[in-house]
Here is the input.
Amino acid sequence: MRLRFTRIVVDENVPREVVDMLRRLGFKDVYWIPEHRAGMGDREIWLLAASRKAYLLVSDIGYFKQLDENETLNGPDVLEYSTKGFAKSELQDPVVMRMLVEWFFMNEHHSGKQYASIRVEGTVKSRRQVWQYEKARREGHL
Here is the structure.
């Protein structure tokens, strides 16, 4: 597969397995922060991706609060992968992240997108909690 863009900057919170997969997908220039400048700040990473005209892959999105309007509007295209729920460490498993990120790029979901977010949320409830929620929904309380 040949991707329309060839550069991607990958934040340090993204596992090596995902970086390796991106290289196999055909990105010619994969700039993984730990290999070049570990400990780099979010704003610096954002500006680096923008200056390289690269896609930015992050596993959190604390960037926006550090940017001004011009930096935000003229920044890189972004894919955010974030997790929330019962066992965040399980949802951040490199296998899960690799599969979803690969699906995103292989199916060209990045095309024409300036900001995309894949959020995986895990919840655990008892059957009683599920029924109470469903009952409230049926009665129009939700």
